[in-house]
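During the no-cost extension, the postdoctoral fellow (Dr. R.K.) reprocessed legacy sequence entries with the updated structure-token encoder. One reprocessed record is reproduced below for audit purposes.
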Amino acid sequence: MTTLNKTPRRATKIVALAAGVALVGTGTAYAAGKGGKGTSKARTGVTAVEVARATVGTAASALSLSGSVVPTTSLPLAAGASGRVSVLDVSVGQRVNAGQALMSVADPVLQAQLAAAQAAVGTAQAKLSAAEAPPSGASLAVANDGLAKAQAVLSAAEVAYQQAVAGAQGGRGTGSQAQVNSAAEAVAVAQAGLTLAEAQSAQAEAPPSSASLAPLVAAVTQAQAAQAVIGAEVAQESLTAPSSGTVSSLSVAVGQTVTAGTTVMTLDGLGMTVQAPVSQASVSLVRAGQTATLSVLGASNNLAATVTAVSTSASASSLTFEVTLTPVAATPPWLHPGESATASVVTSSTPSATLVPASAIVSINGHPQVFVVRPATKPATASGSSTTASPKGSGVAAPAKKSAGKGKGKGKGKGKKNKTGKGIGATAKGGAGTVSLVDVTPSVSDGTTTEVSGLSPGALVVVAGQTYLAQGDRVKVTSTLTVANSVTGSSVGGILTAPTAAPTAASSAAPTKVGAGGGAASGAGAGTASGSTRKGGAGAAG
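Re-encoded structure tokens follow.
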């Protein structure tokens, strides 16, 4: 937006004091001669301008924030066991994967206890395995041999018993009965021996029972439990990464003795967010779910992000609220914790906004306005070019048709014929348009395109050449610029601002035609001609 302190332009006068100087301006022609006494009257001309057509598009209001990149998670990792650091597999800044070994601590006493527990488990398992194993051929042979012998003993006892009974029945006396009784006892003993041998043989062939194995199973379980307790303590000697991330700090070295529970390093998660403070005046504009764009110094790409959190209480020291912004896609590898970042948070959007170039807005006496080009009401009559000749002895160019003033000059020498140049004159071929000032209210701007209210879409606004314009001036359009169909502008504290546009080269054309010591002519645009005289006479016309 250009600031202009407008004064009545028609009161402006430009005087060319140097002899033989050609004054050239867009849409303006001048003539000057040395030694002349002629004067001319100032007159309003036509100014060449660039325009753009106001368009309808989307205007999004954005709040600019500055913050820093922080990891989504930051975990302190502590040693699980006391001892000396025997292995350290990471360094600061190293990226690690979940489950990766980071550090190991050595404790000789704990290692000895683990070895003893492992040995006890081995012994108990060996006993159980032996009991569960099928009988061997040797044991089966022994059992079968004992069974055969018991059967033979029983058979012999039965034969002796039968013989004793037969003798007693033959009338041999009382002694015979004693022999029967003795033989009967021998048979009973032999029968008991056979029963035992059969049981032993059956036991040798049968698998072990659950009852017989229960004590052995219990012994194995107890040994394994003892080993697990000691093994858990030993496992604490090895520190592994609970998740993937980056080691951001490290406070131990190999050979250093640490105590269980002491923090030895910090692991930052791979996900990153941006935390930025927002003032009390602007916090009402920000809410979770709004879209944003993140920029990091040195990065060639911006990141699409979303507002994921807005603190509900202000910082006691800065009286600002913390806003958390999270990238939509996966965190790129070039985004690192601690980097400074800027965020543009879209706080509102207008789908049918009137958009114009920011350079079209001028501030006249503190009021933002634009010059709107209206069609000409009368056709132009001036020609687009003129040809003049310097008469002999005259150092002044003859004025062209419809000149603003006449002047005569005297000089010695012969003048050569001078011709004006041809250009895009504001009055050529169809006449000139006129401009009128329209009050506008700028709202959202990105420095190139600005949303305004108070202006009809489709209006032709002047974007270059308006420096010397005033209400009702005549203009000639040299080119028409294209206006973007969307704009995302910044706001500070909820107040939307429109930037100031720098004056352009096309805005410096002088609209008034005057002559010094000669006549002023209305030309067909920017044109120049040079002349030369002999013996001191000089003249020029454009």
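The chain has three domains: 2-58+353-541, 74-107+237-268, 113-224. The CA atoms of residues 2 and 503 lie 7 Å apart. The remaining legacy entries will be reprocessed before the final report is submitted.
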